[in-house]
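Dear support,

I submitted the protein below through the web form. The confirmation email said the job was done, but the results page showed an empty box. After a refresh the structure appeared. I'm attaching both so you can tell me whether what I see now is the final result or a partial one.
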Amino acid sequence: MSETPSIAVALEGGLVIAVVLQGWPATLPEPRVVVVDYDTQDADDVDITRFPIGDGTAEAVCYSEAPVIYERVADALSPNVVLAALAKSDDLTA
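What the results page shows now:
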């Protein structure tokens, strides 16, 4: 039985610094990841994407982020380790 793939999104100062996949099947293409930041207050107009959503128009700073495979990167964040730590802290709050 194969493990369930995990994804970690690492942020620093509200910015995505890494998207890490763990246990991602080699038979599947890596997912495309898009970051959508609705906080456009200090953004230059050229960096703002406008797109239809519902009956209106949304504005956001958008960009794609290429994921990395945990098993291929030295010193990468392990999504499974983070999930295990969260499970332990969930036990403390129950």
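Response: this is the final, complete result; the empty box was a page-load delay. The chain has two domains: 1-31+67-94, 37-62.
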